[in-house]
Amino acid sequence: KERAHSRVAPIKCRDGTTVMPYACTTREEQLKRLQTEPFDVLVIGGGCVGAGVALDTSMRGLKTALIEQEDFGAGTSGRSTKLIHGGVRYLEAAFKKLDWGSWELVKEALEERGFMLRAAPYMNHPLPIMIPLYQWWQVPYMLLGVKVYDWLAGAARVVPPSHYLHPDGALFQFPMLKAEGLKGAIVYYDGQMNDTRMNLVVALTADQEGAAVANRVALVSLLKGADGRCEGARVRDTLTGEEW
C-alpha cells in the first residue's frame, strides 16, 4: 500500500481536508507476490463472485490471492442484464403461493440494491421501468404490488417512489404505445449498473485490502500433500506462458 501511495499526489478538497487517492499495484508487482508469498486463500476466477469472495476474505484478515485466466468481468459477469433488482415477480409469488422464502429473498435483494446504489453512484443509478396497463383491474393490482415493493425496501429504498401514470402521460413518454384501451401505466424503479466496471472496482478494493489480484493467470493444477489436503497451486501467466 505504501508503494502504491507513493505514486500519487494528495487531493485537496473544498472543505480544506486532504484525501490520499489509492493507486493499485502494477500487474508485475502482483505476479511477484504470487510467486514469492504464501497465502491463506486462493480464489480462482475473477468474476463478480470471485472478486467478492476475495474482498470478503481480505477484510477478514486472511491473506488472499485472486487469479483470473482472462480479464475481470470478461465472462458471465460482464453479460448481465445490467439490472440491480429485488425481483417484483418473486414478490408476486410470495403472495400468491404464501412463500415466505420468496419474501425474504426480495427483501434481501432490495437491501443489496440500496447498498450498491449508495456505494457506487458514479456507475450505478436508479432506472425507471414503465408497465402499460390495458385492463382497469390491473391499475390497483399493479399499483399495490409496486407500493409493497417500495415499502419492503425500507430505509434501503434510495430510488424514487413508484407511481401511476395517466394514459396521456404514458403516451407522451412512449408515443409508439398502443393507445386504444390504454388505462395508464405503472412506473417503478430498480437500479442499473455497469457490471464489468463494478466487478473491477470490487477486485481493486480487494487489492486495496491487501489481496494479490492478477488477471491473465490460469490455474494449471492443485498441489496436494500426503494427507490429500491442498497445499498450493501451479499457475500459468497466459500472456507469457511462464509457470510457477
Describe this structure in words.
With 244 residues, the chain is an alpha+beta fold. It has two domains: 119 residues, FAD/NAD(P)-binding domain (3-Layer(bba) Sandwich); 111 residues, no CATH class. Helices cover 38% and strands 24% of the residues. The strands form four sheets. Strands 5, 6, 7 and 8 form a four-stranded antiparallel β-sheet that branches. A three-stranded parallel β-sheet has the order 3-4-9. α3 packs parallel to α8 and α4 runs antiparallel to α5. The longest helix has 20 residues. The N terminus is likely disordered.
Strand fraction equals 15-25%
Mass-distribution shape: elongated
Helix content class: 25-40%
List the total number of helices: 8
* CATH topology-level name of the largest domain: FAD/NAD(P)-binding domain
CATH class division of the largest domain: Alpha Beta
Number of strands: 11
- Helix and strand pattern: HEEHEHEEHHEHEHEHEEE
Number of domains: 2
Just name the CATH architecture of the largest domain: 3-Layer(bba) Sandwich
Any low-confidence stretches, pLDDT <50, length ≥5? 1-6
Looking at CATH, the homologous superfamily of the largest domain is FAD/NAD(P)-binding domain
Q: Averaging pLDDT over every residue, what do you get? A: 93
- The class by helix and strand makeup works out as alpha+beta
Distance between termini? 25 Å
EC number: 1.1.5.3
GO molecular function: glycerol-3-phosphate dehydrogenase (quinone) activity
Cofactor: FAD
Family: Belongs to the FAD-dependent glycerol-3-phosphate dehydrogenase family.
